[in-house]
Write a structure and sequence with these properties.
Two copies of one chain form a homodimer.
Chain A lengths: L10 H13 L2 H13 L6 H5 L4 H14 L2 E6 L2 E6 L1 H15 L4 H10 L3
Antiparallel strand pairs in A: 1-2
The structure holds a DNA duplex.
DNA sequence: TCGTTTCATTGCAATATTACGATGGTTTTT
DNA sequence: AAAAACCATCGTAATATTGCAATGAAACGA
């Protein structure tokens, strides 16, 4: 039906999936990486940097803002965006905790059980 | 249009977004974590473990298999799934490299520029 | 062989996502 | 005040995703 059954999963699983979903578009990855490389806040540059329309960029920025990954502040006629370090570190922690699993011992056991 | 303009981004950005998208559903997170906790391969258990229909679980397993995160091998009438450690480590590396950015110095600069 | 178990696949309905043109609001510049 | 610059939002079209019932396909046991 196009809607996820979030009530079946833990809050952490839903949160991890939600932030992964936010990162699940190359434009949003590119926006984040450009924000980081510029080491400061951007706005209309993203429209020129990536090849997407202004409305599309604005839409992606909104999603990133909703997720908390970035924040923006008014700066004259333009809006200055930057990474939100608190959310950034929180999400890094979530992914770290997720990927830290699967030590060597488990790898061996799994390979054995799966054959192949 | 519902379709991403992948040609605008680097291969790495597309790959990172793709794997993030695969992880962007709580059922797939739950499947992965259950596979890890069982330390071996599962199949029909997932239908009982999560509250989703068999067809739905099968669909999620297919996506995880397409991404390479898991692999399955026939085991009698059932199919044994497990984490694919090579892909796992590769994706962990991608996320690590992504999140490793934003050292303390940049945090300070960004906060200053953004006001707030 | 026949039924059972276990999955994958198909077909469908409901909803979500992606992209963009057009429009409007806010702030600066002239 | 008028024009310009910048951005968010609305509306729309095309496509993707989610979930499930129903149906097949493959392997096992009686």
């Amino acid at each position: 039906m196009g809607v996820s059954k979030t009530e079946l999963f833990t809050e952490r699983q839903n949160e991890l999936a939600s932030i992964a979903k936010t990162l699940g578009h190359p434009a949003r990855i590119a926006i984040i990486e450009h924000l980081i490389s510029i080491n400061a806040c951007i706005c209309n540059d993203l429209v020129n940097e990536l090849g997407l329309a202004q409305a599309t960029i604005s839409q992606h920025l909104k999603e990133l803002k909703n997720a908390g990954i970035i924040k923006g502040s008014v700066e004259g006629t333009s809006i200055c965006y930057c990474i939100n370090p608190e959310a950034w570190n929180k999400y890094r922690g979530l992914f770290d905790a997720f990927f830290v699993h699967l030590p060597t011992l488990k790898i061996a056991a799994c390979s054995t059980n799966c054959g192949d």
